[in-house]
Amino acid sequence: MKWTPGELVAFTARVIYEVAERGLTLDYAFQKVKRGWRPLDSFKVFYDVSFDAVRHYFFLKFAASRLFGSSGAKAVAKAWFIYKADQMLYNRDMVSRFRKRLLKRALAAPGDVLREVESLRGDPARYLSIKYSYHPKIVATLLSHLPAEEVEKLLDAGNKTWIWLRINTLKADVDKALKILEAEAEVETHPRIPFAVLLKSSKRPVQYLEAVRRFVAIPQDLASVYAVLSLKPEPGDRIVDLAAAPGMKTSLVAQLAEGRAKIVAVDLSQKRVARMKQLLRRVGAGDAVEVVRSDSRKLKTRLFDKALLDAPCTSSGAFTKEPAVKIYPRLEDAPRYSRIQRELLKNALELAGEVVYAVCSILPEEGEEVVGSVEAAPEKPLEDLADPYGRGGVGGRTFPHIHRSEAFFISRLRALR
Ligand SMILES: C[S@@+](CC[C@H](N)C(=O)[O-])C[C@H]1O[C@@H](n2cnc3c(N)ncnc32)[C@H](O)[C@@H]1O
């Protein structure tokens, strides 16, 4: 069934409301609104527009207040149509007619609003927050660690979508997988990681690509790949993954160890453990991994050679994937997470001589300060990682403007025995 631009704006406004006022993630909000909507042939455009509107929320809210004298969800969705519809909707006539209609009662011209945003440059925190649409707390955090020009590049790059695929060599070799992929998509292989490819364009959404449906290629952010590479898994290793579900990194551990390591995957959440068992089976790592539900802070077990700790965290570095993080970064939860991270890391060092600690967070409280708090020798595990916070190389970071990835902190620690 056909949709109208008015309907698109109304739908987007509902999603914006669910994210901005009720704190839902983009996918939850989208599914909730979709359930109450009339059936459409495809909701793809509605999803893409909702994602884009949430991603640009702070700019659109500012623009909405100037154009319509309101910063409510409906006005924000209308502002999306005025500034962004051209880039996402193919029907130029429809866009221009509806845009004109929206602007009939506008209080300002769209160009004047853009000039007003540029005039804020003298106040970098406010300017960057509005221009690139990040919560002021994210901008302030980054500005306290990095020069303003670098923060601007980071925030700009964080508004792009980078889709990395990991060739699953448990299912097919790289050449064969690339052939299957290239029949439907244009990809770029990472210069130093032959099994990591960036999706440049594709004929269909990533989850419908033949290679992805057959688990020959698995969508996995490059930052996660770096975390697992830092562990250097090898055949014969005894490895424990202490916060493993849903198992994406565990399955790469199995892949890099060529299916010949003894791997134990632990997670506290029953639901996520069930999902992990299913995922590991599907990607061909089921036989290589023993799955355990346990609290990894208390786990007392045999010794391992290596431990991976992809710790629970604020996810404040996940803004390239989850645009709701840009509106609600939940940085105030950092002290609680930091406590759990320290407890988990301390026990990881009891269980294994070598530990890789990773978090998807921009905060030193969850990164550099956690690895600095335990009795161990932390280091930057890979040359490719950056150390922009200048904390003496106790770990490395990934950033969208440098690595075209999510923002992670990764450290390798050796237990002092
Ligand atoms: C960042 S996620 C892990 C993602 C996973 N490594 C992957 O790549 O698919 C953090 C995980 O830690 C788990 N977790 C939280 N507290 C835990 C604890 N005390 N012991 C074990 N797992 C815990 C959560 O259930 C969650 O699945």
Automatic annotation (TrEMBL):
One of its GO terms (biological process) is RNA methylation. InterPro entries: MeTrfase_RsmB-F_NOP2_cat, MeTrfase_RsmB-F_NOP2_dom, RCMT, RsmB-like_ferredoxin, SAM-dependent_MTases_sf. Residues 153-416 form the SAM-dependent MTase RsmB/NOP-type domain. Keywords: Methyltransferase, RNA-binding, S-adenosyl-L-methionine, Transferase. One of its GO terms (molecular function) is RNA binding. It holds the Pfam family RsmF-B_ferredox. The keyword Cell membrane does not apply. Signal peptide: none annotated. The keyword S-adenosyl-L-methionine applies. This is Sun family protein.
